[in-house]
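Q: Please design a sequence for this.
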């Protein structure tokens, strides 16, 4: 998987799968949004904004919004951002993954990095159709 071009993609966007991933009133993204599932090698992100009430670029059935991360700040945490492999059958030009997060079994380290990511994340689009930034 090739490294994502930080100059071209200064921000990354992650769809909000679960309501418990953020607190609307506080405009706060929670660490739960950045924990790997057992079968995941990395966290799925989009390199281009484009979610709306009618469109979900992440292909999710249910999406409660989208939050953004500055790519350089993700890299500063010692993580990598990798594009999809062009020859992968599920290839998407706008998809990438954040890699380097510890597996879910390493609870303490996983929580530390998830918290660090939540602190640099900002709500971009909420489920009520309002763009925040």
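A: Design:
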């Amino acid at each position: 998987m090739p490294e994502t071009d930080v100059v071209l993609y200064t921000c990354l966007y992650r769809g909000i799968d679960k309501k418990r991933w953020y607190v609307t009133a506080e405009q706060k993204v929670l660490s739960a949004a950045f924990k790997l599932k057992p079968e995941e090698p990395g966290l799925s992100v989009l390199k281009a904004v484009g979610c709306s009430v009618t469109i979900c670029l992440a292909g999710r059935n249910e999406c409660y919004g989208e939050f953004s991360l500055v790519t350089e700040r993700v890299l500063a945490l010692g993580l990598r951002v990798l594009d999809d492999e062009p020859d992968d059958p599920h290839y998407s030009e706008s998809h990438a993954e954040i890699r380097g997060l510890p597996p879910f079994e390493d609870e303490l380290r996983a929580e530390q990095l998830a918290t660090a990511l939540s602190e640099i994340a900002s709500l971009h689009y909420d489920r009520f159709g309002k763009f925040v930034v």
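Q: Thanks. Anything notable?
A: The first strand starts at residue 11 and ends at 15. Residues 11-126 form one domain.
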